[in-house]
Every structure is written in C-alpha cells, then in structure tokens.
C-alpha cells in the first residue's frame, strides 16, 4: 500500500540549512563587528577593535573568505594587512586557475612548483644562502627554531604571488612582512621627495656679483627684487650672507645720494648774548 505523499516527503532527508552570520548590509556589518571585537575568540589584532574587524571582513570578502575566516587568516603586521601562509595556498588551490602546487625541501633550499592553467610550470626556490643574504639566517624566532618551515613559506610566497596575483588581489604574505623592519618603508609607499630648494652656489654667486651690483646701483632693480628673480630662475635659495651682500650694495648707493648736512652757523653763535655763570654753576 502506497504511503500518502505527505508521509513520503517526511521520510526524504531534507537539505540542512547552514547558519550564516555573513552581514548583508553595512548596519549588519557594524553590529557583527561589535560582537566580534568583544569576543574572547577574536585574535589580538581585532580584540576590542571593531573597525579592524570591519576592514578585515571587507578584505576577506574581496578574496572570497567568509567573515570569520577573514578575521582568523588576515593579520595586521607593521601596520599592513597580510595573509597567513595557509590561507594563501588555500585560496590559490580553490581557484580554477590553479592546476597544481607541489612543495619540497632538499635540506638546504625549499622548492615550490606551481602551474597556472594554460601556462608553463613556474618554480621558485629559497635557500639558506638566500636567508643569509637577506639577514634572516640565525635571526631570533622562527628562523632559528623552524628554518625549514620558514624556507617553505618564502618559496611558496614568491611562487604564488608571482603566478597568481589576481587570485590574491595583491595581498602581501604575513611571513614575509614579519621579516621587514618596522622602520622600513612599504614597497607601495611613494618616495617622499624633498621640496626644500638647493642653496645657491658660492662660485656662481661670486661670478655674478659684479653684474648684480651694477644693476642695483643703477636703480634698475632693488636688491630684494633681484634676489627674488635670481632664486626663481635658478630654483635655488641664496644664503643669508649672500642676500646681505646684495642689500649692502643698495645701502651704499642710498648713502651716497644723501646730501651732506649744512655747516654749523658759527656767525650766529658769536652773536648770541654771553651768559654769565656764578661760582656755584647757576646762571647769574
């Protein structure tokens, strides 16, 4: 006897719905990050820092990571967001662009072979000689305790960043960033060029001084006008001593034009009535 359709459907295993807290709106993301930052399960870079959680979740979304995966696999190192090594290889392996990744170590060098679909195999290595050249061999920490593992991470990072930059979206690898001194500028940071003008050459100044002196003394330009013009054209700043030398030319010229003071009128002095003073110094 056939069972009723309702009973038959009850016997069929129903697909299990997965509970997912992935935010769908910005407000949901803010609330989620508040709870996450307050949790004891949050890594130290995100504990009590909901803003860090929000940025990490956004990074993870662009890379294809769920919110909790992003918080667990993105670290803040020397002020930069970076991916831990296992997340890097997981993202690349899950991409349809990756055919295979093989890793090995001969005791001195780590070898990472990768193949991108439709392209030739690429090989990257990292040896102890490379570690010595980079100042990593013997460095306190993982390079002393786990040199083989660190060689593996370096070879892997080189291979995957070179061959799959589109999959990793340009994210740096945490194991690499950890070895960069905190004071060293980021590779992506623009080089700051000083805008302070150069100092005007003493030789050029001495050579041009007679001509400039003639211009100032002729009245064609004042010393300050000439200084401004020369500095603008040469894109160099005169020293205080050089400027003063030019201003002295102007000062001498002005002094020469001042007419001499009139001579004292001695005749008028002799016509003044004499004044008698007594012995005590008072006027009589």
Entry keywords:
single chain; 284 residues; 3 domains; two-stranded antiparallel sheet; elongated; disordered C terminus
Tell me what you see in this structure.
This protein is of the alpha+beta class and about 280 residues long. It has three domains: about 20-75, no CATH class; about 85-165, no CATH class; about 200-255, no CATH class. The chain is built from 14 helices and seven strands. The longest helix is centred in the C-terminal third of the chain and has 18 residues, at about 240-255. It is elongated. Mean pLDDT is about 80; it is low at about 185-195, about 255 and about 265-284.
Task: Give a short summary of the structure.
With 284 residues, the chain is of the alpha+beta class. It has helices at residues 5-11, 26-37, 50-63, 67-73, 85-93, 128-133, 142-145, 147-163, 165-168, 174-177, 202-218, 223-234, 240-257, 266-271; strands spanning 74-77, 80-83, 98-105, 109-116, 121-127, 198-199, 236-237.
**Binned strand content:** 5-15%
What are the low-pLDDT stretches, counting only 5+ consecutive residues below 50? 184-195, 253-257, 266-284
Distance between the termini: 158 Å
Radius of gyration: 41 Å
- The helix content is 40-55%
Largest sheet: 3 strands, antiparallel
In the residues, how many domains can be counted? Answer: 3
Strand order of the largest sheet: 3-4-5
Structural class: alpha+beta
| Helical run tally | 14
- What is the count of β-strands? 7
Average predicted confidence as pLDDT? 79
